[in-house]
Structures are given as structure tokens and as C-alpha cells.
Protein: Protein FAM234A
Organism: Catagonus wagneri
Amino acid sequence: MTDSKDLEAEIRPLKNDDRKAQENPGSPAPKERGLKPPPPPGLSRCRTAAFFLSLFAFLLAVFVVSFIVPCPDRPASGSTWTISYNAAVAYDFLATGDVNKDRIQDVLFLYKNANGSNGSLSCAEEGFSSPCTFVAAASGANGSILWERPVAQDGALVECAGPQPRGSEASPACILLGRPGPFIAVDLVTGETLWTHPSGFRGNVSILSPLLRVPDVDGDGAPDLLVLTREGKQVHGYIYSGSTGQLVGPPGSLGVDGTSGAVLHITRAGAPYVLLPCVSSLCGSSVKGLYEKATGRVSPLRVDPLWEGMLNATSHQLHLRSLDAVRYVMSVPGKVGEDLLLVTSEDCMLLDGQGLEPRWTLGAAQILRKPVLGHYKPDTLAVAIENGTDTDRQILLLDLSSGAVLWSQALRGLPGGPQPASLPTADHRSAFFFWGLHELAGANQTGPGTALHSLYLLHPTLPSVLLELANVSAHIITSRVVLLEPGRHAACVLLTGPAGPDAPGPVSVVKYKVQDLVPSGRVVHLAKGAPDSDQAVRNRLSRLRYRDAA
Ligand SMILES: *[C@@H]1O[C@H](CO)[C@@H](O)[C@H](O)[C@H]1NC(C)=O
Ligand SMILES: *[C@@H]1O[C@H](CO)[C@@H](O)[C@H](O)[C@H]1NC(C)=O
Ligand SMILES: *[C@@H]1O[C@H](CO)[C@@H](O)[C@H](O)[C@H]1NC(C)=O
Ligand SMILES: *[C@@H]1O[C@H](CO)[C@@H](O)[C@H](O)[C@H]1NC(C)=O
Ligand SMILES: *[C@@H]1O[C@H](CO)[C@@H](O)[C@H](O)[C@H]1NC(C)=O
Ligand SMILES: *[C@@H]1O[C@H](CO)[C@@H](O)[C@H](O)[C@H]1NC(C)=O
Ligand SMILES: *[C@@H]1O[C@H](CO)[C@@H](O)[C@H](O)[C@H]1NC(C)=O
Ligand SMILES: *[C@@H]1O[C@H](CO)[C@@H](O)[C@H](O)[C@H]1NC(C)=O
């Protein structure tokens, strides 16, 4: 089955050509009729025949060009590649983007090689002492390094394909904020510096992830950047121009004791608010308010009168009914505009994105990892959550709009294990990828360093089966399941390395093709008496077609 979008794209040029073809022979006719007497019926029939013949020839030509003449060969990505370093550390960052313009997504990652690096630039040239943190772009097709460069002393926050310079044809950029280190924008294609500035943070601050992209606050035509920091118990927001990287004013306060995991939420009135988990609540501010207080200038952005009433102007807390400690907040698509999915220390709930009334609450849930969205039923969003840890862990798939449990399964897993993932499939559902501790090999192991992690695939059309795709014994820092080539096979990219940044060890970036893992996968039957044989399950799962995430 082909993706419906692809089909449309193929049909459309035909339609347009078709219309043109009909207009052209048709348009001279009325003029001729005005000048000359109507031609004898024989001639007209002849002309009609000629017209249809030429139309037929034309369509045949279109058909030949679009379907029979083969497309120029696209470089197909190899099934597996590995990049490894002997003595390095890696950071929780993996991104994809088309760096070398071969229509295959390439992979970006951060690493620090204890031996120093042999990239074109050395740490010293960028003002760091060796060893320092590099960002590298690896070809998605074969894993060869396309470019790499030093970006920070020790780790960095990264936001790729972020704001682009105003009105430009410029290639996308990655913005990196060193911890510590400067604020740098790097051209995704060449790895060259677009701009660099000192971060401008005072003294002892910790930078809260993530680096947020916000709508254009200063009216220069480019989206801007917001960095949240914590100094003592105060959270501050620093706004940077997205086009030049310049700090636009002194930092604005954002309430007390906030933690990482801020989101940008757009209210129904189109007003952007930054929200972050803070003591027993959710704190926030309008982006306009932050900017105006910091600079004294007027921002073209909006505020939402309802939200201004709900936000305490001094504490920056939202007036919510008593909340337990908030662990995660996510802005999720709702029926109208965005809603908020909130994970607290006790439960998981969906709040209306405008009035913040709870839509549903799943009580008594111990959720230690950020939920992941996907489609369990066609075109209907579901949320995958993990309740509990270790032998008590359960994976639940909930209907996002009602909170109803669609699927649940116990699967051992450790708190530090990798994040689950989902990828849309051609039938408008999603394939879900979960990491678990291997039930046999992992039984007596407790430390995350020694555990055998297994990657499981679930597709909603086979809800009683999990397919164990791979076993990984190295410590997984992060992983992603992505489509490296539009309309082709799913790939799993895995970054493994030492558990902490202090002890260098083997680091590797590995790309697997999911389809190559399926034939050797182990089928785990969840329900007794499932009718399908293992081979039938593998066959069905290897025929899955994936779509690009919309
Ligand atoms: C890198 O480090 C390893 C061990 O730490 C050492 O054996 C190797 O010679 C080093 N390589 C270089 C190029 O310095
Ligand atoms: C760095 O140098 C080592 C040998 O010194 C080589 O094996 C490795 O491929 C080089 N890495 C890059 C990214 O050029
Ligand atoms: C890897 O692929 C790129 C194109 O994507 C090509 O230029 C390069 O030569 C390839 N390298 C190897 C080692 O095959
Ligand atoms: C910086 O803050 C951390 C905790 O936030 C504290 O442990 C450390 O002592 C502080 N350092 C200085 C120099 O104030
Ligand atoms: C806002 O928060 C402060 C400090 O927590 C509190 O004293 C004040 O009463 C709050 N204001 C409103 C209107 O709730
Ligand atoms: C979550 O797990 C706990 C035990 O770890 C259990 O008591 C609770 O019922 C579970 N919640 C849901 C919604 O399944
Ligand atoms: C795990 O440990 C228990 C005792 O601690 C032992 O009986 C069992 O055989 C061990 N299982 C495996 C798979 O090693
Ligand atoms: C993972 O390891 C277990 C135990 O060694 C083995 O039974 C299973 O087949 C392995 N799975 C894969 C996908 O290789």
C-alpha cells in the first residue's frame, strides 16, 4: 500500500496537465467559430478524432514519463552502520535532518572523545580546553561523518532545525547552548558557525532543558528563543533573538522552584505561554509579558485575558485545583486547539487547554517517564504511559480524548531505561516501540549498567503479540525510531555509552533497519491461544508500511 499523500501527489500533476491539454485545443475554437462559418460535420468529426488522438498521445507521454521511465536512483541507506569511539562520553541528544541533501535523513549527536578528536577544528581553536564536546553529523546512508566541530566544554542543550534567519533561503540551523559554553548557531548543512555569543548568564546558574522556540517576540520577523535558568530557587527566562542570537534584555522572573521540562502552550486566543512544572503546581508566564518586563518595549504577541486571570502575577503559579508535584507537562493536540497532558506524582490527567478543567484523570499511577503519543485506532490519538518500575511496570495505551485504557501489558523495565517511541504506519495507526528488561536474561540483574534491554514492537492490528526486535547489553543513552527516507523503512538509531559523563568508555551510534530485525525477532504471545503462528506474525509485521510523521 502506498501512502495516500504520495498517491495524491502522483495524481495531481496528471490532473493539471489534463486540464491544460483540454483548455489549449478548446480555447481557439470559439474564436474560429466567430470568424468562419461552422465547418462541415465530416471535418468536425475529423477534428474531434484528431483532438482525441493528440490528447491520447499526450496522456500516453505523461503516463510514460511518470510511471514507466524509471526515476533516477536514489541512494538507498545501508541496513546497518556503526560509529564507535573507544574512550568517549556521549550526551542525551540524537536528532535527524538532511545534512548532505541526498533526501536521506542524517543523524546528529554530541560526544566528547577523551583522546581528543581528529575533526577539522580543534577544541583550542574554539576556545575550549581539550577534551571538549563535539557535535557530529553522520550520513544516514552509511554512517560516514559529514562534519563535526567543537561546540562546548562539557555537554550542551541543542535545538535543531530551529529558527531561521529572517526571510532567508538559508539552510536550517542547530542552536547549541553549552553547559557551560557559548550560545552558537551552526549551519546544518556545512557545520559552519552562523553566530556565536557568550550566554550572558550570571554566576551560578543551572540551565533548564529544553531550549524553547517561541513566536517572534521582538517583531524582527524571525521566531525567537527562550532559555530558562535556575539560580537558587528562582527561575528566570532569557529571550534571545532567533536571527542574531543576541540577548534581547535582562532576564524575566518566572516563579519559584521550577524544574526542567517547560513547554510552550498556545491558548485558544492565540497567545503563547511558557509553562513549567513547579512546586505543587504549574508555573508560567505569557511570552509577551516576559519580554515586555525585561525590555520595556512592546511586543506584537498577544496575551489571553482568561489566562492572565488564572496566573498569579507574583508567584507565577496557575490556579489549579490542588495538584501534587508535577513531573511532566505536555501540550497535546485537542479537539479545538491544544490541550495539556499533566503527569503528577499521583496521577495522569488531561486538562482543557483553555479553561484548564480536567477532561479525565487516571488515578493511582506512578509515571516516571514522559508519555509518548501515537495512534492506536486509525487517526485517533493515544498516549503511551509507563506505570511503575522494574517488575511492577505496566505499559498502558490510553485514548487521549477519553482516557480509556486501550491496551495494557506488564513489561519489566528500569527507571533509567530508554524512552518508548511511536511511528505512524500507512493504515493511519502507529507502531509502538517499547524498551524492556529481558525476562530471562535480565531476571537477576538490577543495575542499569548490566541489564539486557530488549526492544519490543507492537502494532495495534496485532494487539496480542509483541515482537522482540533486539537485545542490547550496552548502556543506552538515548534511542530514536525514525523514517530516514520518506516512504521507506523505519530505522532505529541507538546511542550507547558510559552511564555518566565522568568516566569515558566505548561510545557508539548504531543504525538498524527495523525491517531487517523482524525476521530474526522473537514473537512474544501475550494472550494464550493466539491463532497466528510466529512466522505469520513476522510476515505481517515485516509488511508494515510507515509514514512520515505529519
Ligand atoms: C586513545 O586512548 C586509548 C586508551 O585510553 C589509547 O590506547 C590510544 O592510544 C589513544 N589514541 C590516541 C590516538 O591517542
Ligand atoms: C580519527 O582517527 C582515527 C585514527 O587515528 C580513525 O580511525 C578515525 O576514523 C578518525 N575519525 C574521524 C571521524 O575522522
Ligand atoms: C557514504 O555516503 C556518502 C553519500 O551519502 C558518500 O559521499 C560517501 O562516499 C559514502 N562513504 C562511504 C565510506 O561509503
Ligand atoms: C552553585 O549551586 C550549587 C547548587 O545549585 C551549589 O551546590 C554550589 O555550591 C554553588 N556554587 C557556588 C560557587 O556558589
Ligand atoms: C499570589 O501568590 C502570592 C504568593 O504565593 C500570594 O501571597 C497571593 O495571595 C496570591 N495572589 C492571589 C490573587 O491569589
Ligand atoms: C499503577 O501501578 C500500581 C502498582 O504499581 C497499581 O496499584 C495501580 O493500579 C496502577 N494504575 C493503573 C492505572 O493501572
Ligand atoms: C536468579 O536468582 C535466584 C536466586 O536469587 C535463582 O534461584 C535463579 O535461578 C536466578 N535466575 C537466573 C536466570 O539466573
Ligand atoms: C534476546 O536474548 C534472549 C536470551 O538470550 C533470546 O532468547 C532472544 O532470542 C534474544 N532476542 C533477539 C531478538 O535476539
Summary: Residues 202-319 form one domain. Residues 438, 440-441, 454, 468-471, 521-522 surround 2-acetamido-2-deoxy-beta-D-glucopyranose (ligand 8) (CB under 6 Å). The chain has a mean pLDDT of 83. The longest helix spans residues 41-68.
